């Protein structure tokens, strides 16, 4: 593709996204079993607190990155510093075994990593000639990075079994930390993106204005449904690892099996535009939520079928692209330009923060209460997210009536 039709920095931005999400994908799926009784021996409450570190940082980080970081630092330098310090923190977890130090380092890493997600997006949007056309390809690098995080553990865990395999999972921090330090260096080669003092024309408290738009019933319904779906989505990563081991999938295969969903996500993202044209906002998002219900229903009622459990992982692509990717596109269309960035941050507060936090405090204690003598009642456990997904889909179906033509919202909610 010629320079007249594509941006000169696309390849660099693509690689930036690969490393950005490889850092996260390396530790998130496998950390829960590693912290449990067969690993570090943390209690359910301690595991919940470690998991909450990322959610707490999401809440703090969203406001920090939107209101301060991207207005006072060059984006690429902010990214480099965050990944340097955050990378050293996650790398140090390879040697840590006690809870206080483990939690502190995870919190430091999370506080530095979370803002980089939105800052990386800002760098991409600022340096693409046609963001609407090219951003999807650049963001696909993140999905590929998540997949690449899975495969090293096939080799690392391939010769180990049982408790030895779980303890060997400390290598997830090596992979994540090295990727973070590599990205810190690579960020210094990214195109210079100066601080955006005006923040795209928004006032310092534009996020407060964006909250007022929730007075529109269809946006309020979408806000509630997003919280529910985010809780279910984040809960999957908490429960899948232990369940896959329970049904007899070897440790070395767990990450590759879970990465099937990311492969499907690439395909689903490629057809998302066509699906939106054919089905519209409402139906597309409902299908995304029902993907969760179908996946957890298979887990609950077909635990004896490894083939079905593996195949149903492809629904992750539908769950993410049809709901979350569609959500971001919808927000861009539904909110006026002067509060659009803050509106994205408002819904990201649910996706990365409150939904994640709710998942930790719901599903970790719930799984603990359903586990007796080391045996978990997975059927009952998975009926919870199945029911929540069906309820969210029903709410969206009954109460979500977005305007056929999304223009500027009514004057009474603009100020």
Automatic annotation (TrEMBL):
Q: Per the record, a Pfam family? A: Nuc_H_symport
Classification via InterPro entries:
MFS_dom (IPR020846), MFS_trans_sf (IPR036259), Nuc_H_symport (IPR004740)
An example molecular function term from Gene Ontology annotations = cytidine transmembrane transporter activity
The record lists the membrane-crossing segments as: 12-35, 47-66, 78-96, 102-125, 137-157, 172-192, 213-233, 253-277, 308-331, 343-362, 382-401
The alphabetical list of record keywords is:
Cell membrane, Membrane, Transmembrane, Transmembrane helix, Transport
Keyword flag Ribosomal protein? no
| GO CC annotation terms, alphabetical | plasma membrane
The UniProt entry, under PROSITE patterns, shows:
MFS
Gene3D superfamilies given in the database record: MFS general substrate transporter like domains
Principal localisation? membrane
Subcellular localization is given as: Cell membrane
Protein name, entry field: Nucleoside transporter
- What's the source species for this entry? Roseimicrobium gellanilyticum
Question: According to the entry, what is the taxonomic lineage of the organism?
Answer: Bacteria, Pseudomonadati, Verrucomicrobiota, Verrucomicrobiia, Verrucomicrobiales
């Amino acid at each position: 593709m010629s320079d007249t039709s594509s941006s000169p920095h696309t390849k660099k931005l693509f690689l930036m996204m690969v490393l950005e999400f490889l850092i996260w994908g390396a530790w998130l799926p496998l950390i829960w079993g590693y912290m449990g009784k067969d690993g570090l021996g943390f209690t359910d409450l301690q595991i919940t607190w470690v998991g909450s570190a990322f959610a707490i940082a999401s809440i703090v980080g969203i406001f920090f990155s939107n209101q301060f970081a991207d207005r006072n630092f060059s984006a690429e330098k902010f990214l480099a510093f965050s990944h340097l310090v955050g990378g050293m923190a996650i790398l140090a977890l390879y040697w840590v075994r006690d809870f206080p130090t483990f939690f502190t380092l995870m919190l430091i890493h999370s506080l530095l990593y979370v803002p980089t997600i939105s800052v990386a997006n800002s760098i991409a949007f600022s340096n693409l000639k046609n963001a609407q056309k090219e951003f999807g390809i650049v963001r696909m690098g993140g999905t590929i990075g998540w997949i690449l995080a899975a495969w090293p553990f096939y080799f690392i865990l391939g010769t180990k079994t049982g408790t030895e395999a779980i303890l060997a999972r400390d290598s997830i921090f090596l992979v994540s930390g090295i990727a973070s330090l590599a990205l810190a260096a690579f960020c210094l080669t990214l195109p210079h993106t100066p601080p955006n003092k005006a923040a795209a024309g928004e006032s310092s408290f534009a996020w407060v204005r964006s909250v007022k738009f929730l007075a529109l019933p269809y946006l309020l319904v979408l806000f509630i449904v997003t919280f529910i779906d985010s809780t279910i989505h984040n809960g999957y990563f908490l429960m899948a690892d232990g369940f896959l081991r329970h049904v007899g999938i070897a440790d070395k295969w767990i990450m590759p099996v879970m990465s099937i969903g990311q492969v499907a996500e690439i395909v689903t993202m490629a057809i998302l535009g066509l699906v939106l044209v054919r089905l519209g906002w409402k139906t597309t998002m409902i299908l995304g939520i029902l993907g969760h219900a179908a996946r957890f229903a298979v887990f609950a009622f077909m635990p004896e079928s490894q083939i079905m459990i593996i195949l149903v992982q492809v629904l992750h692509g539908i769950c993410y692209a049809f709901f979350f990717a569609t959500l971001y596109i919808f927000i861009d269309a539904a909110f006026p330009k002067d509060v659009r960035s803050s509106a994205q941050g408002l819904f990201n507060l649910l996706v990365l923060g409150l939904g994640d936090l709710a998942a930790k405090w719901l599903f970790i204690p719930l799984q603990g209460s359903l586990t007796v003598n080391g045996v978990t009642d997975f059927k009952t456990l998975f009926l919870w997210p199945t029911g929540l997904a069906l309820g969210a889909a029903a709410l969206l179906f009954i109460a979500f009536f977005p305007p056929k033509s999304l223009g500027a919202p009514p004057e009474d909610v603009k100020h």
